[in-house]
């Protein structure tokens, strides 16, 4: 049995569904203690219940610095120090530049980038030297996909932050890596109010552009996160790792 994360403590933001939940399950299977966050107390509790011991939950909105401070305080009192931060919480929202409102702009940037930034800032004093941070970014940061100007910029900012932190935290032997996720089959579209049928159409369209001919699964992203935070990846920092079924090498030329 793979116990590569035995005795490690991990914090996963946005762990009540999708990629964060699958990663929590994988970390637990590999021997880690895991704390997940999310905005909705009921959803966090249900996830903790189905993940089983020793999963724990804490309700915190990543866009709220107050919540992030409370999270850090809880982590300090509950665990003292931690070994792994998986900064995964995020939202997607699509609209062409003429339709983007200031509210949309702020909501996306505040959760996906500002919130990720201050979560790391608050939790960093609790991260052991030799620990590991993984950010969840997206192919949007590079794809130039119409209708994703703000979403893509929020993820590009994450990529930049991760590269800077990889050097800033290297003296503490803290490794910082980024996963560039392609289309993964999670409830992310439904959460922003896209209807089941529309979400199905979007997923069908995405699938058609993926060389491997299918969407990714959350558990496949979880495997990559688990590797990047493990000792097997001890010489890997400042890297970006794509998991997208070949989407970004699709040449568009036949
Ligand atoms: N699915 C994809 O195709 C894809 C591709 C590339 C990158 N990603 C990235 O992967 C990450 C995970 O998304 P997912 O696809 O697994 O979607 P998901 O199932 O919707 O999961 C998102 C998680 O983030 C949490 N979250 C959202 N806003 C939050 C906030 N303000 N504070 C705290 N938690 C918050 C959600 O919890 P609540 O909503 O209950 O608060 C949920 O636990 C996101 O950063 C997303 O951008 C996804």
From TrEMBL:
Residues 8-187 form the Ketoreductase domain. It comes from the Bacteria. InterPro entries: KR_dom, NAD(P)-bd_dom_sf, SDR_fam. The keyword Thylakoid does not apply. The keyword Cytoplasm does not apply. SUPFAM superfamilies: NAD(P)-binding Rossmann-fold domains. Keywords: Oxidoreductase. It holds the Pfam family adh_short_C2. GO terms for molecular function: oxidoreductase activity. PANTHER family: 3-PHENYLPROPIONATE-DIHYDRODIOL_CINNAMIC ACID-DIHYDRODIOL DEHYDROGENASE, DEHYDROGENASE/REDUCTASE (SDR FAMILY) MEMBER 4. Belongs to the short-chain dehydrogenases/reductases (SDR) family. This is SDR family oxidoreductase. It comes from Chitinophaga solisilvae.
